[in-house]
Amino acid sequence: MNPASTLPESPVLPPRDYQVYSGDDLATNVLEVAMGPQHPSTHGVFRMDVSLDGETVVKLKPVFGYLHRNHEKIAENVTYLSSMPYTDRLDYFCSMTNNWAYAMTVEKLTGIAVPERAEYIRVIMAELTRLQNHASLVGFFVNDLGASGTPLLYAMREREHILDLFEWASGARMMCNYFRFGGCRNDLPPGWLQQCRKVVDAFPAFMDEFEKLLTENEIIISRTQKVGILPRPLAINAGITGPMLRASGVDYDIRKVDNYGIYNRFNFRVPLGEVGDCYDRFMLRLLEMHESVSILKQALDSIPEGPVIGDVKARNFRPKVGEAYGRIEAPKGELGFFLVSDGSPKPYRYRVRPPSLINLTVLEDMCLGHKIADAVIILGSVDIVLGEVDR
Amino acid sequence: MSDPTPILARFPVIVHDTATDAFIVPVAQALEVATWLRDDPAQAFDYASNVTGIDYLPLEKKLKVKQPDGTEVETVSNRPGYFEVVYHLYSMQRKAGPLILKQRTEGRENPLVASLTPVYRGAEFQEREIFDLFGICFKGHPDLRRILMWDEFEDFPMRKDYISPDDYEYEPTPHDSVLAEARKHYSK
After folding, report:
1. What is the pLDDT of residues A227-276, one digit of tens each?
2. Pick from A2, A237, A325: which is nearest to B88 by CB?
3. The pLDDT value given to residue A352
4. Would the CB atoms of A353 and B49 count as touching at under 8 Å?
5. How far does Cα A32 stand from its chain's mean position?
6. Which of A5, A82, A107, A184 is a plausible cystine mate for A78, CB 3.0–4.6 Å?
């Protein structure tokens, strides 16, 4: 069956009004460039079909699917627990938060309770994930600007300390597979909390150094300010979430709105941007790292002793017939899982709401009228991971 | 979660499914309902978070019903198959939600629902994905193309009756065993 033949007649929308800046009167032809999938700035196998008038972007269509493996279909053919390690591969930078979103949705579907200590461990792991994601994002972003290597390696050096903590607790640096329905897989090893405290205490020094080097850098300011402005109404309507939405000035953090887990016990602020340009998105990540450090310190102070997982049947359980949608504030935005149960050990429908994919909806709107070199920075400021975009 | 009365009072055609707390909207009214949900200040559901499809195959259930005179009569209930498109709407203004909106198709042949992309831009890629993987068409979508699968692909992998090919990367090469397999494959 050819999908085009089954297409109903739909009203043809008028073509978008592209505003082309031309400083001179020379007539030029539009040049079509397929940027990617091997282009180094696309953070993986992502392609942008760009039409250029001189150097100015007049049209941009993102092309996905190079990493598509139909995660959802695979998950519908195995039991609930079997999908847990596979969620690590969605956003492979932040496997802990992926685990949490999936575990939370299954807990919602089945009504499994989570012990107190496990809730604290989850918050600690999620905030460590946010720290290393934002640190490396800022590094990659500056790398896209042309500062090749040095700031990125500063960020990677700090990320390494956090990955060491992950490896110590879960056995793997990136594919952690640490959360289970109703808690965590194992308790933290002895001495882990003290080492975590050391890493967290040392982190602000890195951020200060980073900010001193970067935030008032003339090149960064002139290349990112007023570039790729995302207006507030468009950000809301296009379903943008995470730091990108807050950089446009919308006060919406799911940690505050839903109060999932035990986030209502911690004091933290939600940084907001004013303009919604690339500089705001860059600064917002730096500011969010400060808040994550603050949450981590509070959590490390108050983590109780106790079991990390309750007495739950982990394998081959059959949830009642029903639906559940669970969402968390992942470092890249709202990560949601939607599960439909038909009473069998396998989910009838398993859906991932990927923040990276939906944040790309406005890529064309942000890039139009800018130079092709700025499109690279705008894409870098969105913060995508192709494992999650293509699933 | 949310109080269904004002929505049902405004649109009596909507059916409220209490088991899943979902509002099932007829395809013809979906765009109007979504516009109202977004623009009405008391609702203000300005953010479409998750859009997805569900495939329900036809269900045949055999039931034995005992008659008053003691005999058993076997009845067969047939539920026709259908597709469902689910929207999870949230309100960023009121920090409320989710409101679950569903559209159902008539059958599984040439499924067609209304696109809510004109109301929520956030549904653009997700509706394209549903079109790509489920084969559900969205009336009024500005750019309905395949998104994850390649354009020449001719089936809808997320449908429950999808049969995956024997070998995804079938390419006969001149080796004995492979050649024999190739002959077997082409003789089918």
Report:
1. 888 888 889 999 899 999 999 989 999 998 888 888 989 999 999 988 88
2. A325
3. 93
4. yes
5. 30
6. A82
Q: Name the residue of chain B whose CA is nearest to A9's CA.
A: B139
Kindly write down the DSSP assignment for every residue of B4-31, as one continuous string.
-HHHHHH-TTPEEETTTTEEEE-GGGHH
Task: Give CA–CA dist B34/B46, Å, rounded.
Answer: 10
Q: Maximum CA pair distance of chain A?
A: 75
Instruction: Give the burial string for B51-65 (b: 16+ CB within 10 Å, else e).
Output: bbbbbbeeeeeeeee
Q: What is the pTM of this model?
A: 0.85
The one-letter code for the residue type at A103 is A
Residue B169 in this model has a pLDDT that exceeds 60: yes
CA angle B166, B171, B176 (to 5 degrees): 100
Residues 6+ apart with CB under 8 A from B109: none
Question: Per-residue pLDDT averaged across A49-78, rounded?
Answer: 88
**Cβ contact (<8 Å) for B48 and A357?**
no
Q: Among partner residues A3, A237, A250, which is closest to B122 by beta-carbon distance? A: A237
- What is the rounded distance in angstroms from the CA atom of residue B99 to the CA atom of residue B116? 15
Q: What residue type is A283 in one-letter code?
A: M
CA separation for the pair B59, B57 (Å, rounded): 6
Q: Average pLDDT, stretch A305-333?
A: 87
Reported ipTM: the value is 0.83
Q: Quick check: A361 and B19 CB within 8 A?
A: no
Give the mean pLDDT of A362-377. Answer: 88
CA nearest A46 in B: which residue?
A: B148
Angle at A253 between CA A192 and CA B120, to 5 degrees: 135
As given in the structure block, the two tokens for residue A223 are 């290349």
| Rounded Cα–Cα distance for residues A42 and A51 (Å) | 17
Question: What is the side-by-side order of every strand in the sheet holding A30-35?
Answer: A30-35, A47-53, A56-63
- Burial annotation B77-110 (CB, 10 A radius, 16+ → b, else e): eeeebbbbbbbbbbbbeeebbbbbbbbbbeebee
* Res A105: pLDDT: 92
Q: Record the tokens describing residue B71, joined without a space.
A: 């005999």
Chain centroid offset of residue B72 CA: 38
Could you tell me where the DSSP H helices lie in A61-115?
Answer: 71-76, 84-87, 95-110
Q: How far is CA A20 from the centre of its chain?
A: 32
Residues paired with B59 in a beta bridge: B79
Confirm if B103 and B84 have CB atoms less than 8 A apart: yes
- CB under 8 A, 24+ apart: contacts of A102-106: A102/A179, A102/A337, A103/A179, A103/A180, A103/A181, A104/A260, A104/A261, A104/A326, A104/A328, A104/A337, A105/A324, A105/A325, A105/A326, A105/A336, A105/A337, A105/A338, A105/A339, A106/A80, A106/A181, A106/A319, A106/A324, A106/A339
Chain B interface disruption, residue of A10, A337, A363, most B CBs within 10 A = A10
Give the pLDDT band (50/70/90) at residue A122.
Answer: very high
Residue of B nearest to A246 (CA): B92
